[in-house]
Amino acid sequence: EAVTLSTSPEWKKVALKTDLTDDKLFEQMPRFSLGWFQWVLRSFKRRKGAPKELRYGEYYDHLYDSDLMYLAAFQGSKKVMQWLVSQGIPLKIKGKYFRS
Question: Is-contact 47 62, C-beta < 8 A?
Fold first, then answer.
């Protein structure tokens, strides 16, 4: 999960949470737009690759490349995957807990 603060003046102190855990993804199929992915890439700190250890429902101020690519592939969005690649995020991301 990732957390950032709202940029809206009236919501300035409200934390925005994005829950990308498997149980939430399978609960309801995500339908995030290209604009949403663009916002996420601008709003959160980016970490290359995949996490070195499992994350257990903790909130972070960053997302890994694998988080975004996995989500785009999971929802079947070729357009978003192509855009992520154009932003320097590789299709094939290897990590201890992530297999592409």
Answer: yes
| CB atoms near residue 30 (< 10 Å) | 15
Q: Which of 20, 29, 25 has its CA nearest to residue 55?
A: 20
Q: Looking at the predicted structure, is the pLDDT value of residue 15 above 80?
A: no
Q: What's the rounded Cα separation, in Å, for the pair 30 and 25?
A: 6
* 100 or 52: which leads in pLDDT: 52
Task: Please report the pLDDT score of residue 31 as a whole number.
Answer: 81
75, two tokens: 């929802």
On the CB side of 92, CA atoms within 13 Å amount to 0
**Identity (one letter) of the amino acid at 36?**
W
* DSSP secondary structure code for residue 16 in this structure: E
